[in-house]
Amino acid sequence: MASPVSSAVHQGRALWLSTIAFTICFAVWTIFSIIGIRIKQELGLNDTQFGLLVGTPILSGSLIRLVLGIWTDQYGGRRVYTVVMLAAALATYMLTWARTYPEFLVAALFVGIAGGSFAVGIAYVSRFYAAGKQGTALGIFGAGNVGAALTKFVAPFVLVAYGWQTVAQVWALVIGLMGIAFWMFSEEDPVVRARREKNEKPTSAWLELEPLKNVQVWRFALYYFFVFGAFVALALWLPQYLIKVYGVDIKTAGMVAAMFSLPASVFRAYGGHLSDRYGARRVMYWTFLVGVVTTFVLSYPPTDYLVKTVNGTVSFHLEMGLVPFTVTVFVLGFFMALGKAAVYKHIPVYYPRNVGAVGGLVGMIGGLGGFVLPIVFGALVDLTGLWTSCFMLLFFLVAGSLAWMHVAIRHMEHGVVGEALKKLPELPEMEEIHKPEHVGALSGTVLTDWRPEDKTFWETTGRAIARRNLWISIPALLLSFAVWQVWSVVVAKLPSVGFKFTTAELFWLAALPGISGAVLRIFYSFMVPIFGGRLWTTLATWSLLIPAIGIGYAVQNPSTPYPVFLALALLCGFGGGNFASSMSNISFFFPRAEKGNALALNAGLGNLGVSTVQFVVPIIITVGVFGWFGGDPATVTSGTQTSSLWLQNAGFIWVPFIVASAFAAWFGMNDIASAKASFADQAVIFQRKHNWIMCWLYTGTFGSFIGYSAGFPLLAKTQFPSVDALQFVFLGPLVGALSRSATGWIADKWGGARVTFWVFILMMLGVLGILYFIGIKDQPGAFWGFFAMFLILFFATGVGNASTFQMIPNIMRKEMDRLMPTADALTRQRQAEKESAAITGFTSAIAAFGAFFIPKSYGTSIDLTGGVQGALWGFFIFYVICIVITWAVYSRKGGLLHDIERSPRIVPVTQAAE
């Protein structure tokens, strides 16, 4: 028996030799994506003829996969792989002899032999690995798709310097040498070696084809038609697309097209890892969901809009530039790579003895997409005249695949509950052949055992996992707040770059993200128990790209209609909604003794996004950090001086960080199985009176924080126009965020109700101070007194934000003793945790309306009275009411939290291991 070290050496050699060989084969297989452009010019081909030319090798390479897969199962991958590469080398070299279009088609047919190598490599590599590692191994092998990017990187330079014939000759030489090297250094796979030792004959071709009678093999192969077939089609089509649409040269077209092929290839290895860890179904869902979004965006053709308004006709132009196109196809390619790995994860699990035949069939179906789609792309361009029609077709293809998969899954799971549900396959296509040994093989893992109140579990396992999730959650939440509050700075600069909006219209732009964020928080409050914290955090973070990119484009054109800005302001509410789900998610991870501080850190450091946006945006808009990628600056005149302003950077600056944070959430966070609950389970909080009381109190703390943050810049500018307040306003939210994250321990130690009581007293004093300094605003130094009072207010709101959230779990634990007197301690604890999480999210939703009402109150007060004093007196009265409620319900002797906050700390009972 071979030692583990020896086995690992054999596995590694087989994997890396096969991957390198497949990379070179794929580079040869897609050679027409580059040389075909020059051949088209020489022969004067139309787009349909060009599509047929680049698709012909894909056709032959796809059809031959089934045969090569069977031969690999019969005779071994070492022999078949070598023959494939040597035959492809000869065919590629003979390509240089072609002169007419039919001759090129025949030559391309034989070049396609290189594409058949995939079926050979899949069967060969899988035999060296156990089932638990095959997803990762086959993912690494499949990353050989990067050969398409290699051709796009290198071939244009060789073509320009020496001609397309030299490209074919060099590619033929490389694949021929690789075929010889593979034969010299590879070894027979374990199955073939064992067969030879026993002098057994290989299985007949008819028996190898036996699994192909199962209809699920054919149905499942249709998924691969999109994730691989569309990948190959775009890899071939994009260079031509880029040259025609964006007018770039062939070198630039190759480089940009490689930005699709590269992630669509190299990340296939990671897709295998994700399928092993999180489940193939989840990876497929994400592939199709992102595919729907990206293809929809890419399919939108350049359009001129003519909008009739009450003030006349407004026209504007929408068109995706080269840079956002490159970014979007990169994202599409990345998720296609994950999907390819998820599809092939199934094959060695369900067909361990027929990987070659089944893998060959699935690869053939997918490869046929690479043949059919380029031809259809060309025909669509000829018929419609729209170059984006190719993405329209892909949109309908992926949307149909997603709908079909989802409906099939729901149909399979209908009426199945409990343990029976866990035993179902990941995808319904496999239901007929799903056996006990397949249960859980493709499902991935979640945290099924989560006991943070168990001291031993927490110290040995729980704390590290909880902290990782917390530190991934914090930057995601910070970016959410940054996008949510970006209008608080942008509106002050819109008049400088040519927008003729009134003061009331500007206040509306500052206020609308608050109301949309607040409304979304109501729904986001219940999402984590339904979808899982990891999935929802990732999806919510990705959604921030929509307003960030939209703002970057809208502010560049002063003729952009005001309704577009209103829509973008509403979309910024995505960032506001994220807070509710983020806090709900983190609340599940930590024990009672650490929950207050954890929530304070998550919320407080997340709140830093407000001060971050107010500090970063005024600086970043003065510098062209993105070069020509970011667009031209606007010229701003101030007196006799002129300067350049890149206001679009206020949106674009967050894009790379949003992408990084979304990936971190997807790859690094966890779902907790015990945290699952339906909306109906959580809706019980609407019957709890303390839910509504805490909504009122949290509106007084967080509602004030976010409302003052949104309205402070514009308020300071209107009240003290001679002071450039934008350079100071970020300090207010900064103080509020830091005080929240740094004072969570105070509420844990002294009690949330007692701290909240004194917070509202301090806020009353702060409002009185602001009223005083506005009354003497024409006197020297009045601004600094005004500013100091606001800093006191921000500090108080931060402390109050932490203390009010600390109250919620204590309230619900006390309430569960009353509401569930017959339940055991563990049941009451779990119910209290679920209701606390829902109330935490819901109160944050209601309080977020402060981001709308406070700026709007300023504007309304100015319209009605000519000043903001009316609004401030209203805030003062509100804080008086908050003091009365806090004392009467919670902190007084006899109040709900009086005994809890004044009694010695009780150590939670250790939950018994289950």
Number of strands: 4
**Taking strands numbered 1, 2, ... along the chain, how are they ordered across the largest sheet?**
1-2
Could you describe the largest sheet, including whether it forms a barrel? 2 strands, antiparallel
Query: What's the alpha carbon Rg, rounded to whole Å?
Result: 31 Å
Mean pLDDT: 77
The portion of residues assigned to helices is over 70%
Low-confidence stretches: 1-6, 204-209, 440-444, 905-914
Question: What's the multimeric state?
Answer: single chain
Output the structural class.
mainly alpha
Name the beta content range. under 5%
| Coarse morphology | globular
Short account of what is shown:
With 914 residues, the chain is mainly α.
Q: Can you offer a commentary on this structure?
A:
Helix 23 (503-524) runs antiparallel to helix 38, helix 25 packs antiparallel against helix 31 and helix 29 (592-620) runs antiparallel to helix 34. Strand 1 (303-309) and strand 2 form a beta hairpin. This protein has 41 helices and 4 strands. Mean pLDDT is 77; it is low at 1-6, 204-209, 440-444 and 905-914. The protein is mostly helical and 914 residues long. The strands form 2 sheets. Strands 1-2 form a two-stranded antiparallel sheet.
